[in-house]
Structure to design on (111 residues):
């Protein structure tokens, strides 16, 4: 059973026990496009219990909002940050090698 379904089932179990809203961490659940190609998608999932007059869970309202663009933007920012750090390090090395070399006169001169 895929991890997404395990998380969803666990969320429902939590709601039935605690009778409170339960939010899952971002979930990856790919969808198929018209060309039968799966596209990477991420979802923010909130499960909300609907209670009866006796305080028991009557049903669970499952809400999923697509957050793919946000997840991809965060991933790109992490990659950009890592590349910027590597670029800074390489620039320091270039600066070291571009600095004028100091030529030392030999202490002993041979005839």
């Amino acid at each position: 059973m895929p991890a997404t379904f395990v998380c969803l089932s666990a969320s429902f179990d939590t709601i039935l026990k605690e009778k409170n809203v339960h939010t899952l961490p971002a979930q990856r659940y790919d969808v198929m496009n018209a060309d039968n190609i799966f596209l990477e998608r991420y979802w923010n999932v909130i499960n909300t219990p609907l209670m009866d007059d006796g305080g028991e869970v009557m049903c669970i309202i499952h809400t999923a909002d697509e957050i793919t663009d946000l997840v991809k933007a965060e991933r790109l920012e992490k990659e950009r940050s890592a590349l910027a750090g590597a670029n800074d390090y390489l620039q320091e090395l270039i600066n070291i090698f571009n600095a004028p070399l100091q030529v030392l006169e030999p202490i002993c001169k041979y005839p």
